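The passage that follows is intended for readers who have already worked through the single-chain material. We present the inputs for a multi-component assembly, then the predicted structure in tokenized form, and finally a short commentary. You are encouraged to pause after the input and sketch how you expect the pieces to fit together before reading on.
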Amino acid sequence: MNKIRVVVWGENVHEQKSEAIRKVYPEGIHQCIANGLSVDETFDVGTATLRDPEHGLPQNRLADTDVLIWWGHVAHAEVADAIVERVQKRVLEGMGLLVLHSGHYSKIFKRLMGTTCSLIWREAGEKERLWVCNPGHPIAQGIKAYFEVPHEEMYGEPFGIPAPEETVFLSWFAGGEVFRSGCCWKRGNGKIFYFRPGHESFPTYRQPEVQTVIRNAVHWLAPEGARWVDAIPNVKVSPEGIRQE
Amino acid sequence: MNKIRVVVWGENVHEQKSEAIRKVYPEGIHQCIANGLSVDETFDVGTATLRDPEHGLPQNRLADTDVLIWWGHVAHAEVADAIVERVQKRVLEGMGLLVLHSGHYSKIFKRLMGTTCSLIWREAGEKERLWVCNPGHPIAQGIKAYFEVPHEEMYGEPFGIPAPEETVFLSWFAGGEVFRSGCCWKRGNGKIFYFRPGHESFPTYRQPEVQTVIRNAVHWLAPEGARWVDAIPNVKVSPEGIRQE
Amino acid sequence: MNKIRVVVWGENVHEQKSEAIRKVYPEGIHQCIANGLSVDETFDVGTATLRDPEHGLPQNRLADTDVLIWWGHVAHAEVADAIVERVQKRVLEGMGLLVLHSGHYSKIFKRLMGTTCSLIWREAGEKERLWVCNPGHPIAQGIKAYFEVPHEEMYGEPFGIPAPEETVFLSWFAGGEVFRSGCCWKRGNGKIFYFRPGHESFPTYRQPEVQTVIRNAVHWLAPEGARWVDAIPNVKVSPEGIRQE
Amino acid sequence: MNKIRVVVWGENVHEQKSEAIRKVYPEGIHQCIANGLSVDETFDVGTATLRDPEHGLPQNRLADTDVLIWWGHVAHAEVADAIVERVQKRVLEGMGLLVLHSGHYSKIFKRLMGTTCSLIWREAGEKERLWVCNPGHPIAQGIKAYFEVPHEEMYGEPFGIPAPEETVFLSWFAGGEVFRSGCCWKRGNGKIFYFRPGHESFPTYRQPEVQTVIRNAVHWLAPEGARWVDAIPNVKVSPEGIRQE
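Having made your guess, compare it with the prediction:
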């Protein structure tokens, strides 16, 4: 069986600029996420960052990627539109996309959703409890009725997204808010999963339950069918003329 | 403009059997809900209860009903299957259905959803905060970012429903749970809205925000198009033979 | 890797009563479908029919079934309600369900959909052309832009179903009708696929493209996650106590 | 009751450049559509075209528009991105959008869908028959089981769109193709309807059934709730403080 080829894309700006964030993720958020994936031997894991040439996502690499994970925050605007278009095209062809936390405001997520993707937020390091809405869903395997992240940034409703095709997690925040934290869509031939936790100032991606969800999501996001190379063909006379009785 | 003909169906069992519940709703839950609707002059409001002949829902009355509101709890099993089938048929034709609170386990809701409609629950009189997921939705008009019910029964995820076509409210509970509290579906030609609050031991249906939501929901649920009298016709030779160039 | 355990349920009434149908399917429709599956060594295939004890679907057999295929027509009413409920429960737990052709009017399909599932129809042995709506979908693999069934019963819109979560095939009929012929839903933890072709008087299930679609559908329908044993638990004091105002 | 303020946007390029098209629509496609709307006295109808300043869609005009109708074809690329963004923002706030025919490839439709919106096509002037999938839907009122356009361009599946939330029409083409011709979505607070017919070389928009569908669609698309002015607020201390562990 072929391995699932995963690329973890991290903006890698906070970690370079802020001593405080570097202490939390000295290896970079992208590398921490990649390490959490590496325990699954069915994955072939690589990373890419904003400052790499073509943001680390040249055409031929994307063509060979099954699942792309996206973490970005302060530098969304620096992502080149041509690369965003390239990623969108690959998702519509069948590549899975896992959008994490502040990636809700990335160009690629907004482009695939068609909506504002906005929300309310608060940085207070409060407790988040994520409830499972469908205990049988593949992305929720290994998770009990809920799990908690002890200190996280809060994201609250309204979340400006199209109605999710399936909602896997809902978050409860100690400060009184709720959020659709695990949402599934299909666009073209590609699956998309948004997963909320992961503020840069907390070691959330070191938490076993979070790593489990990300691994599950990669399995769920892996392409199931063929690559759909889309076009707009002019079909001439119909394949066999018309009705043959 | 014709009035919207609403029937509020209440089981009316708790109110008869329990002195404590009767104190909360001496007029009956169904009548309290009906009173909350009566301030809107575009409504023509009636009530029906389990003990009425045909549960108060004879064929000709249903035929003239635009929106049916359903509150039931301990006596779901006493609702006659023939009446459930009749209500289902009217919903598929275009009648709106508002299912309240413990109505999640009513025969009619389970039949229209096709799923278990189960959930987790706790009676602790805790605080519920309902967040609006789409501030522009007609059902949320007049509600701020959220509203609170000071003492309610808790309902929590997983809620065994098909993916809602739109989620209008999400609840946060003081005890740590979350719930999809305002959910929209269309089945056949009829709209369905599930709205969570309303345990019999609390005066929830006297609360202005709850009454506002119920009035909004009735407007949203009112039939928009024609009555679809469904059938399975055998169409003979196609209407005009086949392809004419 | 464990095999996918498939049960093909066939009503097996036409084949017993009608000489003409017996000539088309001397082995029975269910057995013909099962034979088409047997070329895939990852399947463990069995059959069941209406006249078997418990319709061939005792509790312990269903518990060990991953995907159930359902073909019925003239004897829908003879299927015991208790068995229908049992099948529904297994679907909600995670078993896949493939509903074929006239199974649109089976008790199990109507129960899971919550709608009439009605349509228009004509027996004229006309040509059906099935178009692929998403060429990358796993159920469409191995199928070109479309395939044709030379002689089939016509089913036309309106088809009284909830909006499909994904539409894989649309049919064009020589007589002038169209139909949503390949539709996906999820209910509880189980996937459901409706596939239109397969009238008893034509050898449709011997056609390679039809067999390909059915094999693809079985792979897609196989459970992905854990079995969800649903319940309605009363959760006592919340994990860390309740915050009372 | 306030009138529904409709703006019909037409590219108006074919009509200027081609004598043949000008013969079909001497008044312009946009004006023909506007004339079809004017029989409904609840509408306040205006038009706008590509060559108008700001394409006829200045900020204050859009702010006062309830439903925008969009017909474009050869000049999609000439529509300024800033105007597309402005229209998208208004749709998400609540303005309805009716996208016609070749508008499937407009910037605004692709942006709201997030997908390729591609399809197959043929200009053979063949017959199109549009079937109603839900006879009770408000957009289908006044239409029988189907209606025909005698000569039209063919559009066929696969149509690269997200799964429609409701499918109102499916087309059958004489040449052997099918298409999802009437599709509903909601994005943010705005409703979107795509309606297929209307090639520039045929007088399709003079046909009574087509005019009926467009009028119905305007009623359905009109905003129901409040304008949602979206933002991403940082909510400070939560309403009643935060519960810190």
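Commentary: The domain at 4-115+181-221 of chain D is CATH 3.40.50.880 (Rossmann fold). Confidence is low (pLDDT under 50) at residues 240-245 of chain D. How closely did your sketch match?
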